[in-house]
Amino acid sequence: MKRVYLERVESPMGGIWLMGTGRGVCSVRFERPRHRVLGEVPASPSRKELVAGGALLRRAARQIREYLENERRAFTVRLDLSGLPALERSVLAAVRRVPYGETTTYASIAERVRDPRGTRRIQSILAANPLPLLIPCHRVVGVRGWGHYVAGRSLKARLVGMEQGQMTIRL
After folding, report:
1. Domain ranges, residue 27
2. pLDDT number for residue 121
3. Which of 20, 30, 133, 159 could in theory staple to 25 by disulfide, Cβ–Cβ 3.0 to 4.6 A?
4. Is 137 tagged catalytic?
């Protein structure tokens, strides 16, 4: 049975669950209030054996805390995107190259992955980003506004504002 490692990070926006495999971090999920109340952990995406912690996830948790404290601009932990189709991996790779403190549009990402009419497809892929924060999809916005974010538009705006020096997110 393939192991899936699990780590929880405390943050100003609530708990963040990290999951990883031997290959790298495979999932970042923002805790929902019902998880806190019931003490549940989010279900494993692959429903494999869950194991607490691990050096990789502790390093990822530390890097997320440093990012939220404005002490880190880039993540260096290994990621495991092996279960995703090629187009999704290509989109997420393009999003990883958006510099800290900058934003780009869904249309621009579509052009970078040579899918110039794929703006809606890009939006759908980023809405399902398994690694928000580590793959900074909050830096991708719509032409007419913020666009969606897995943890809500207000958090997306806070993250972009933090990166642009307009606000602070403290632990």
Report:
1. 3-68
2. 93
3. 20
4. yes
